[in-house]
């Protein structure tokens, strides 16, 4: 029983990070119908920037701030400069562009920081908390991870649901032409959407960095897990992305704990294929209606 | 239809060509504040092109669009709300994923505009703006008798009610010019009568320009009517005068007379 609780706790922690990556993908998919394959590269790059800050003697919090700010800027700039020209083109163009960006960012990071992975410190101790004499697989840093992701989720929900800026963001995502007639600057909304998505992604990068280390290829699995979580949630639903992330995190934790840790990536892909076969639109798809 | 000093919107000899096809040929019209101007004509007469010119979707080859006495050039669709111009679309043009209330709030947004970054950073202020916005959108829905549907998605409502939501959204912007693009399309006779009453109730408020096929609606609610045929103004004046104009009869009935 303790083992099950521990695996669940570990699953929720890693699931929170998957959820953040999934949310970054969903935000962009909703607004522009683009699957942002560059997300893995973007969060790798911003995490490297954060690592540089720490490497030069900066504090954890300064590094985190650097990652978030650079994520915001990177997302906005990439949308404006690289993605905007393909937004009205066939979907394959965007796929190629985001994949190309991913390769580019990875190569650039390798040139700047080298290919050797670097360790990244956690914000708090990763020694598990003890409850009634049992050491739990839940450390203060894990609590920070869960709390940080939850805080970002709440903030984003408030932004989208409770502010007129959020309303315009949603209007621009649902029907850009109509939104334009209502005075919404759709281009700006898309830029802001990318910036917010990249911000969430860069948070995920810093949170997961202590366990995967910081290197050009260290975050590749994060994109796969995040994408799986997003698809489980239906790609269109931010709430679905969060639930998908937590489900995937727990599922993979059970696979790792009860079967073998070698099978974790296999498990993620198996989950992805199963969901796509059983519910092709994801568990949270609102309707079968497709935008053509 | 002479130049009126109170004309808010004025088209002066606007010409639009698409690949040799003349969509609008030296069209002039003036829409004064507080009055309803109807634009009628057979299919392909250029009615929608005329709206597209006003909205900045289409640039005229020659002539000018004047708004509040100034030439409008290079305006883009997203500028309309700021200029005080609202347009309803043929069909509905509602956001399917937003609630009825949110649909109207997007329309009302030009009055509660929080800036790009300030909206992000100054959440409390944005929250207050949002409450004011919500209240005003609700008032418009109430006026149009669809306040009870505020929390539903447009797709769940009957067509007539969706039309009311679209109109509520246009009015929520408190426009000085309201462009109604075939608002009666798809409505039942009873709903058209209600629509006529709604449009009539706007008299004295914004300038209204109504593009419509439905002759009874146009003749019933408009203060002045402009008739287009093949991109040209063939008649203009009060509904009674226009109705009996021989050129209008030819344009509308010519085919039938020939066929009979």
UniProtKB/TrEMBL annotation, chain A:
It is a multi-pass membrane protein. It holds the Pfam family BPD_transp_2. The chain crosses the membrane at residues 6-27, 34-54, 60-82, 94-114, 143-161, 190-213, 266-286. It is found in: Cell membrane. It comes from the Bacteria. Keywords: Amino-acid transport, Cell membrane, Membrane, Transmembrane, Transmembrane helix, Transport. Belongs to the binding-protein-dependent transport system permease family. LivHM subfamily. This is Branched-chain amino acid ABC transporter permease.
Automatic annotation (TrEMBL), chain B:
SUPFAM superfamilies: P-loop containing nucleoside triphosphate hydrolases. Pfam families: ABC_tran, BCA_ABC_TP_C. InterPro entries: AAA+_ATPase, ABC_AA/LPS_Transport, ABC_transporter-like_ATP-bd, BCA_ABC_TP_C, P-loop_NTPase. Keywords: ATP-binding, Nucleotide-binding, Transport. Residues 9-255 form the ABC transporter domain. GO terms for molecular function: ATP binding. PANTHER family: CONSERVED COMPONENT OF ABC TRANSPORTER FOR NATURAL AMINO ACIDS, CONSERVED COMPONENT OF ABC TRANSPORTER FOR NATURAL AMINO ACIDS-RELATED. This is ABC transporter ATP-binding protein.
């Amino acid at each position: 029983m303790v083992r099950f609780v521990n695996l669940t706790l570990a699953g929720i922690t890693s699931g929170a990070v998957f959820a953040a990556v999934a949310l970054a993908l969903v935000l962009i998919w909703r607004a522009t119908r683009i699957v942002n394959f560059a997300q893995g590269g973007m969060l790798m790059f911003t995490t490297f920037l954060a690592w540089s800050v720490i490497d030069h003697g900066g504090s954890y919090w300064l590094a985190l701030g650097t990652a978030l700010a650079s994520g915001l800027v990177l997302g906005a700039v990439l949308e404006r400069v690289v993605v905007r020209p393909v937004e009205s083109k066939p979907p394959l163009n965007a796929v190629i562009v985001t994949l190309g960006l991913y390769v580019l960012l990875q190569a650039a990071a390798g040139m700047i920081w080298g290919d050797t992975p670097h360790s990244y410190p956690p914000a708090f101790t990763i020694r598990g908390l003890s409850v009634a004499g049992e050491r739990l697989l839940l450390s203060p840093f894990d609590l920070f991870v869960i709390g940080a992701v939850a805080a970002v989720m709440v903030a984003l929900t408030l932004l989208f649901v409770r502010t007129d800026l959020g309303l315009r963001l949603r209007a621009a995502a649902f029907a850009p032409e109509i939104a334009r007639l209502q005075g919404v600057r759709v281009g700006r909304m898309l830029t802001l959407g990318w910036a917010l998505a990249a911000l969430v992604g860069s948070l995920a990068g810093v949170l997961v960095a202590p366990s995967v280390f910081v290197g050009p290829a260290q975050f590749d699995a994060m994109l796969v897990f995040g994408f799986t979580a997003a698809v489980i949630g239906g790609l269109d639903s931010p709430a679905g992305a969060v639930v998908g992330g937590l489900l995937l995190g727990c599922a993979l934790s059970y696979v790792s704990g009860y079967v073998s840790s070698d099978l974790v990536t296999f498990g993620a892909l198996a989950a992805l294929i199963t969901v796509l076969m059983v519910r092709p639109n994801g568990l949270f798809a609102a309707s079968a209606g497709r935008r053509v | 239809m002479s130049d009126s000093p109170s004309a808010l919107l004025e088209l002066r000899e606007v010409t639009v060509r698409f690949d040799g096809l003349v969509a609008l040929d030296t069209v002039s019209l003036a829409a004064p504040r507080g009055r309803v101007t109807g634009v009628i004509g057979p299919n392909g007469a250029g009615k929608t092109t005329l709206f597209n010119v006003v909205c900045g979707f289409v640039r005229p080859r020659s002539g000018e669009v004047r708004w509040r006495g100034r030439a409008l050039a290079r305006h883009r669709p997203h500028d309309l709300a700021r200029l005080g111009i609202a347009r309803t679309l043929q069909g509905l043009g509602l956001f399917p994923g937003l609630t009825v209330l949110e649909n109207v709030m997007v329309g009302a947004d030009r009055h509660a505009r929080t800036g790009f970054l300030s909206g992000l950073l100054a959440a409390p202020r944005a929250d207050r703006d949002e409450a004011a916005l919500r209240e005003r959108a609700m008032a418009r829905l109430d006026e149009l008798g669809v306040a009870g549907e505020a929390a539903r998605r447009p797709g769940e409502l009957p067509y007539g009610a969706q039309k009311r939501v679209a109109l509520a959204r246009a009015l929520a912007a408190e426009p000085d010019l309201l462009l109604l693009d075939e608002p009666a399309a798809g409505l039942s006779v009873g709903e058209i009568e209600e629509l006529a009453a709604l449009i009539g109730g706007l008299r004295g408020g914004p300038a209204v320009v109504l593009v419509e096929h439905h002759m009874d609606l146009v003749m019933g609610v408009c203060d002045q009517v402009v008739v287009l045929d093949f991109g040209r103004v063939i008649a203009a004046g009060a509904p009674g005068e226009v109705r009996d104009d021989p050129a209008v009869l030819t344009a509308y009935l010519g085919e039938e007379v020939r066929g009979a």
